[in-house]
Design brief:
This protein is an all-alpha fold and about 90 residues long. The chain has 3 helices and no strands.
């Protein structure tokens, strides 16, 4: 059976890279919080964003750019925006 090639999308790859940098920046800020209870609260809330980012990245790496890609990006962005609106960081 012939393996189908992944469809790549440079613009989408830039969005994933930008998302990765945003996740890394927020995680660094969370790790800088001195109060352990507050840090745990922020980390717990941010885990959903990390989950959606991981799902987005993994899907692209395995499947390439598909009909589902934009939906996964939207899920990540919505989770990130919700986190930003609820937590000051």
């Amino acid at each position: 059976m012939i393996k189908k090639r992944r469809k790549l999308n440079k613009d989408f790859e830039r969005k994933i890279y930008s998302s990765k940098k945003n996740v890394e920046l927020v995680l660094a800020k969370i790790y800088d919080i001195d109060d352990e209870d507050i840090q745990k609260e922020y980390m717990s809330a941010f885990n959903k964003v990390v989950y959606f980012y991981d799902e987005l990245k993994e899907d692209y790496e395995l499947q390439g750019f598909t009909d589902n890609s934009e939906e996964l990006l939207t899920n990540y962005k919505n989770a990130f925006n919700l986190f930003e609106s609820e937590f000051e960081i």
